[in-house]
Amino acid sequence: MLEIRNLHVSIADQEIIKGLNLKVKAGEVHSIMGPNGSGKSTLAQVLAGRASYVVTEGEIIFEGKDLLELAPEERACEGIFMAFQYPVEIPGVANTYLLREALNSIRKYRGLEPLKHVEFARLAKEKMGIMGMADNLLKRSVNEGFSGGEKKKNEIFQMQILEPKLAILDETDSGLDIDALKVVADGVNALRSPERAFVIITHYQRLLDYIVPDFVHVLVDGRILKSGGKELAFELEDRGYGWVEEEARKAVNN
Amino acid sequence: MGISFSNEDDGYSKGFEEFRKEAPGNGIPWMESLRGEGIRKFTELGFPTPENEDWRFTNVAPIARTTFTIEKNGHKQVSPEALNRFIFPKLRTIRLVFIDGTYSLGLSDLSDVPEGVKVLSLASALDSEEGLVKKYLSKYADFSEEAFTALNTAFMQDGGFVYIPRGTRLREPVHLLYITGKSDRATITNPRNLIVVEDNCEAEVVEHYVSIDEGVYFSNVVTELVVGENSSVGHYMIECESMKAFNVSTLRVEQGRSSNIRSHSVLLGGALVRNNVHPVIAGEGCDSLINGLFMSTGRQHMDNYMKVEHASPHCDSRQFYNGVLDGRSRGVFHGRIIVHKDAQKTDAKQTNRNLLLSDNAQIDTKPQLEIYADDVKCTHGATIGQMDENAIFYLRSRGIDEDTAREILLGAFTSGTLESIQVDEIRNYCEMLVAEWFARRKGGTELDNDPR
Ligand SMILES: Nc1ncnc2c1ncn2[C@@H]1O[C@H](COP(=O)(O)OP(=O)(O)O)[C@@H](O)[C@H]1O
Ligand SMILES: [Mg+2]
């Protein structure tokens, strides 16, 4: 579904991602872990199409298409969704309005009729229920005055409505209490299917107790230094990231 | 035909001599002397120049150097159909219509004026309600330092006279509609509105300035709004003048004890526009909302000048002004808050946010707090910026294309100020005007309306 080859990304002339390779197949859940500043969010933003992040080398193929050729909205329409680490507040734009516009824009791209108001309302209500969100959050301005937890739930709620093929969650678990974490995990697990893939960026192994990944990758200083199964997450939790870097250094020196 | 005059060779004074002979209220001694004081003051002050701190960002030279004509029976034909687009859909109103400054009986609609309420043209009020007019007219709009108010006082022609006696809840808004058409020469009108709301009343009043065929003219407006104790009044200034017109208007509000006013200005038209809003919060425990949206393009110049005077304790004032500037247009937000010595426990807040849609648009924003009381809370803030790129990216990442994303954010910005309009039909009408503005922008018609 997704193939990233030798990706190099710079921000303001500083290289952040330094030759990253990653392959994600439909149905898989990949987790990317790594210390602060290692480039995790950069990777997520590049996948979503943020223009200020410049790809200097490499390629990203999504469902056979050159992703880097597509505008952010086209990527969304092709089935990519990124849950923001820091969701943006948009005063004056109702949550429900954003979502209906988004959903209908995606439907239009796929040659489908726009969803009728009542149908949309029914869908939204159902998903709000799953996410345990208060009804009034729909009418409120996007993320404005939401608590940290509400913002993160709102991202997953949007994901549920938009039903992407590939969802990238950027530290959706950070700052959540255990109850909220479970709700988020349930929201993700409810969408897991053989046609859909997830890239879950996290700082803590905790989330992976609830969303069991097929692969865990360690991202350090813009490169994936180690990949493994879910056991790797536990090892990282116990031992930190230092040993991964150490191993990598030795491998280079040998 | 009419009276023409320019700013040279004492032209306004000479024009005045001719004008006064047939002016409304001619023969009423206090009116004659009021007009006389007006012209005397105007001649003394002259048009303001940018050296005057209150006019630092707005040069009225284009007005000063134009020769204007006061149309004598300037009664252009306006069909009821042409009137339609200036009327709020689905809203019954009490309507006074003025065409080129002259009251139009035929287009006005006074069928719903309740018993005891008076809504008529100022010129006829000078005949039938002279006592009431005398009691209030020019008692608030001080012209000792205001040249345009002095000019209006000298040349006031006609306008709305609204009198709402105590305890009245006016169900239908009063709609004062000023239509100006195109003439071979630049015309001037000096509309004068006097709105008196006694104690324990509720009322909504709309001032609405429009044009029928994009002429060059000057509307020099003064409105006095007197709000009695415990009354609640909404005032709307909807300015859709010709893109070649000048509009200078002053709203002077006098607020009695425990009253509440909501002033909404929506400025969309005009080449050179100056909108003065000047509430004096004279009684205790008042609320004032002074809210505005201005949208400029081409070479439009829009100056929003606010002077909020807190003269009594325990009053709250809120100013929210949003500007959208495109093309080579220029905007000014000058918000003064004056808290007099006795106005303890004043809570005043001022916010001005501006979006620049083009690199050539410009805004000058100037908050000015003058506080002579010690126990007060005053805050102000202004922002100038382009659209929030993070928000645009967020919307796009959800599948919404860039143009639509920008439209959504612009819409949110403009609606943010219109939201507080309590009369749905008036708010919807303003939303429609804003939507038309966006549609014209999208249509890409470059506006060339340089008045110079
Ligand atoms: N917009 C930006 N401008 C400049 N530097 C940035 C920007 N965003 C991220 N960086 C830098 O890029 C590096 C990687 O950041 P990020 O991808 O956010 O890391 P992570 O998500 O793994 O914590 C950091 O050193 C950070 O300071
Ligand atoms: Mg991050």
Q: What does this protein look like?
A:
Chain A is of the alpha/beta class and 254 residues long. Chain A is 39% helix and 28% strand. Chain A has nine helices and twelve strands. Chain A has helices at 40-48, 72-78, 95-109, 117-131, 136-139, 148-162, 178-191, 231-239, 242-253, and strands at residues 2-11, 14-24, 29-33, 54-62, 65-66, 80-83, 90-94, 141-142, 166-170, 197-202, 215-220, 223-228. Chain A has a six-stranded mixed β-sheet, sandwiched between helices. Chain A has a four-stranded antiparallel β-sheet with strand order 2-1-4-5, with helices on one face. In chain A, α2 (72-78) crosses α3 (95-109) and α4 crosses α6 (148-162). With 452 residues, chain B is an alpha/beta fold. In chain B, the strands form three sheets. A ten-stranded mixed β-sheet of chain B has the order 4-3-7-10-12-14-16-18-20-22, with helices on one face. In chain B, strands 5, 6, 8, 9, 11, 13, 15, 17, 19 and 21 form a ten-stranded mixed β-sheet that branches. In chain B, β3 (94-99) and β4 (102-109) form a beta hairpin. In chain B, α1 packs antiparallel against α2, α5 (122-128) packs across α6 (130-136) and α9 (402-418) packs antiparallel against α10 (424-443). The longest helix of chain B has 20 residues, at 424-443. Chain B starts with a strand and ends in a 9-residue tail after the last helix. The model of chain B has no long low-confidence stretch (mean pLDDT 93). The chains are: A alpha/beta (254), B alpha/beta (452). The A-B interface holds A 48-51, 71-73, 75-77, 81-82, 84, 87-93, 97-99, 101-103, 105-106, 109, 141-142, 158, 162 and B 388, 390-391, 393-402, 404-405, 408-409, 411-413, 415-416. The structure holds adenosine-5'-diphosphate and magnesium ion. The site of magnesium ion (MG) has 4 residues of chain A, from α1.
